[in-house]
Amino acid sequence: MVKKDRKEDTGSNLFSEVEGCLDTLKRHISVIKSLLMEQPKGIIKISQETNLPEHKIRYSLRMLEKEHIITPSKEGAILTPEFIASREELVNLAKKFKEQAQSIYDELNGLLISK
User: Fold this and answer.
1) Buried (b) or exposed (e) across 66-85, using 16+ Cβ within 10 A?
2) pLDDT in tens, 53-96
3) Which residue, among 47, 49, 74, 51, has the nearest Cα to 61 in the 3D structure?
4) The CATH number of the domain covering residues in 1-79
5) What are the structural domain ranges in the chain?
6) Closest CA to 65 of 54, 75, 53, 78
7) How far is CA 50 from CA 29, 56, 71, 91, in A?
8) Beta bridge pairs of residue 41
């Protein structure tokens, strides 16, 4: 086992939960991208296209269904009309998070580096 230096542990622990959420979000977006190219599409095909394991695709599909972004069909997952209608809203939410992340970066940079 490789021991990390204490300084790395502090930084990674502070952002580890957010980093995990961002990884999951990127995976969900990869699934949506795959479905935007062709639908319906099943777990195996999405897994092959995204190079992500099937169990992670299965989880993403469950979460996307819960959020009414996809719906299952006999042939595979399809994007819902509600999602298609709300694409601009999703982009606006992403912009809001980008601005929040930039604000956090600016604050930390000002407090810890730029003095």
Assistant:
1) eeebbeeeeebbebbeebee
2) 999 999 999 999 999 999 999 999 999 999 999 999 999 999 99
3) 47
4) 1.10.10.10
5) 1-79, 81-115
6) 78
7) 10, 11, 19, 21
8) 77
